[in-house]
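Incident log entry.

Two folding requests arrived from the same account within the same minute. Monitoring flagged them as a possible duplicate submission, but the sequences differ. Recording both here for audit purposes.

Request one:
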Amino acid sequence: MSEHILFLTGKLAEKQLHNILEKMQPDFTYTVHQLGLKVAALMTTDMVARRLHDTFGADRIILPGRCRGDIAALSAHLNVPVLRGPEELKDLPQYFGKKAQAYDLSRYQVKIFAEITDAPNLSVAQVLERAAYYRHNGADVIDLGCLPSTPFPQMEELIHALKAAGFRVSIDSLVDEDLLRGGQAGADYLLSLHESSLWIADEVAATPILIPEHHDDLASLDRAIAMMQAKNKPFIVDPILDPLHFGFTRSLARYHEVRTRHPGIEMMLGVGNITELTHADTVGMNALLLGICSELDINHILATEVSRHACRAIKEADVARRIMFAAKQQATLPKHIHPGLMTTHEIAPFPYSPEEIRELAGAITDPSFRIQTSAEGLHIFNRDGLYSATDPFALYPHLNVGQDGGHAFYLGVELARAEIAWQLGKRFTQDQALTWGCATDQAEATVDLHTFKPAGTTLPKK
């Protein structure tokens, strides 16, 4: 027997909800019931408790996505499970698809080595602060970078401090003395050893990252791998990722070749050579590079945040590794898993067409302005009319708020957001900040739907 779902809505959205459900052809039966209020977004759980006298035999009740109040209490009152639906009706098909396929993003395979490239120039306090930031954004290992011809007298002190604070630590240098000192001080990893410096691995307990003697010298890398395998010691192999136009494609082939030759070994990819040395947004680069890691079973990356344009690289890599792991586990494409990597665009930026917006505007009978976007531009409307443009300044003469500074300011902010969303292809929702995925620290919704939104500063009249 199929599930029966009761959808609660308002007068303005009732017809559209019927149309969407009919087109969905869902595998459940349903009832659409409007509660006698015009705007569904103004519904509260208290209203539902007062007005809903029949649950129509429903196994579940779906409320509008912005319905405020305690749905657990409402569920107990009605003795039926109550859930919030999506904020936009047009997202209903995707909403039910998400419910059918929930992805676990708590798991990942790739460890992130976050490099502090200028460690010799920093104090213990500065390194601990940077390490805490990297760990907050997803780093598993803090990599202390040594600088050429630069003394590093506080290396041991830094390693001891990081270890005492619970960090795993690696030392990054091509100078034998630095690597030996780091290993003796308790570093967990050494970046990087090659065939000629492999003796250091016999002197310390740290796990070495092995690189070729020269970039294309895979024979030397094979010999180093064989030596470590003969000693039955752990190691990680990094065939070296080169920047674009300086051997990038050839180096990708090198990674594939090493994986083919050595199916079971641990490998590392230095993603910073691409994210730092390419002036383009790093989120897409990290998605692709972590996808390569997923395909080649590369379980370690070395990431950096030196250039300002790469200031979110660690966090982006963390989100990307989780998405790629989930996709690989489910044998699916890395699509519709999590929106964190969609920073400047969205899958469905314009849920409503101009025709649908015009139909909604024609039903409005109050003076409050609604703002929506479509593929054609910005739309603002109330009972006095609908106005559309691609430039917010073109809308101002129609708004009649010249004598109401607070209202004008509010509409200016909202129209500016709408213009940015329209230009980039992002979702705009009035009274809510634009979402930027993992590009900001406020990627997750901060609205508490258990509480009621206080009156804004533009509402009171003196």
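Request two (distinct sequence, not a duplicate):
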Amino acid sequence: MSDKKGRCVFISGMGVGSGYPVRVETMLKVPLYNLEEVISKVRELEREGCELLRVAFPSLELKEQLQCLIKSTNIPIMADIHFDPNLALSAIEAGCPSVRINPGNMKNKKALREIVSAAKERGVVIRIGANGGSLASSFYERAQGDQAKALVLAVEEQIKLMWDEGFEDLIISAKATSINATLKANILLKQRYPYPLHIGITEAGPGVHGVTKSSVGIALMLSQGIGDTIRVSLTDSSVKEIKVGQEILQALGIRRFRADLVSCPTCGRKRIDVQTLVKAIEPVLDKFPKDWTIAVMGCEVNGPKEASSANLGVAGTLSGVVFFQHGKIVGKCSVEDIETYVKTLIKHL
């Protein structure tokens, strides 16, 4: 058994685990055979700050497309493998720096040993990714129906096989649609093993429902020191998943990706449409220093006071808007001139 000191792995030179930032990843949502669309989507994800991209690799015939993808991006790629061990071997041969295997549908020990041997030879990281929706019934039976324990048993079975082969370049993951089961499983894995943990709530759903469920589950784990990579699993675009993942980390104070925007929920005192002000600020938010806080308030009565710590604030007044820094008013302008004022301010930062 490995020691309990936190470990790290490297995927295309990117550190994951002890001593490195919590990484934000997503999964490619277009099939590999449509390479032109794939490359277009990957360019979007690069701009958004994606740090690890998992890619479904369901057919040996897609090996050439996988090779092209790997060569065309600086984002580390992880091939997502199910059922057929030959797919993992093919992905490794194609130059993929990491592969995910699912203990729920890949139990051939001889084939797994071949995957480990190939991974060792090429310095490939393996993620053991158990999923509540694809666990074999035997794990549930051994866990007496406890989903969290069944997930842990599935991960442990493959960890032990990796140990038998002297392989420890691992990331481990146990996900379910249940927040409680996922949290319990990951607490157990964190207590028992030193490997980087990938976390998320699988099949969280669409819209507000999916964002809320993912955010609650991921935040609960991160707040307990659990999680080295995160994926927000939404019925939405990969870009949206990255945005939400970054917002979770920033809200918890774990990482800072851009200036922080705070805005009031508005009330009967509002002097101006706060949404209009927010829409004027959001497009230029990334122009401000990352450690700044930008505040948008609906009235001048307590706007500067409520956002007294803000590096820059804007509040509605009877005659337009006022700008303030750390609670002190520093300028005024009309609503029509706000975008021009902000752009001028940015130039003097």
